[in-house]
Amino acid sequence: MNDTLIQFDEVQFSFGPDRPVLDGCSLQIEPGERVGLVGANGSGKTTLLHLIVGLLRPESGRIEAFGSPRRRESDFHEVRRRAGLLFQDADDQLFCPTVAEDVAFGPLNLGKTQREARAIVAQTLDSLGLAGYEERITYRLSGGEKRLVALATVLAMRPDVLLLDEPTAGLDDHYTERIAEIFVDLPQAMLIISHDRQFLDSTATRLLRLSSGRVEPA
Asked: Which of 10, 124, 154, 203 could be joined to 61 by an S-S link, Cβ 3.0–4.6 Å?
């Protein structure tokens, strides 16, 4: 049985004839790996994440996730349940008035009861050092606090893979170190996009570079 979680084989994608992005891109993510991905601005790193969860579709090539090929919209429903995408801007992920409501949103949409969702919220926030934040007003949080709450909304879904788009962008050293410690302790496989090489050196088990539309060892 193939244990590979995410696999790209010769994936081609562009935003039109004048905007090529991926050109025969191949990639594998295995259980337990924390894969760091670097590359120039505009090289297609975020596009790659969006292709994994089906927000974009390749022009050619093969995307496989959790042992099955993914082609149609219905194929990606399972992927979105099992692969947690953390956006680069926490404000794009947080839209409820309070922290508890934001973190409970995913579990409730997965069919959890209110009681089950409250337990998940409490456990997830506690694991991130945010116990007692349940009734905090989301938009009043600091940038670092918002980033941790956004991460909590992803972890509350109990994903198998974390797709992390610049998780420390704009954060000070305190929150960058805190997030690094959290990532190292989490059991999920990860694909971490970051321009912070020091952060990736402290968290990633393997480092890749996206250049000219292809992934290569960094």
From this structure: 10
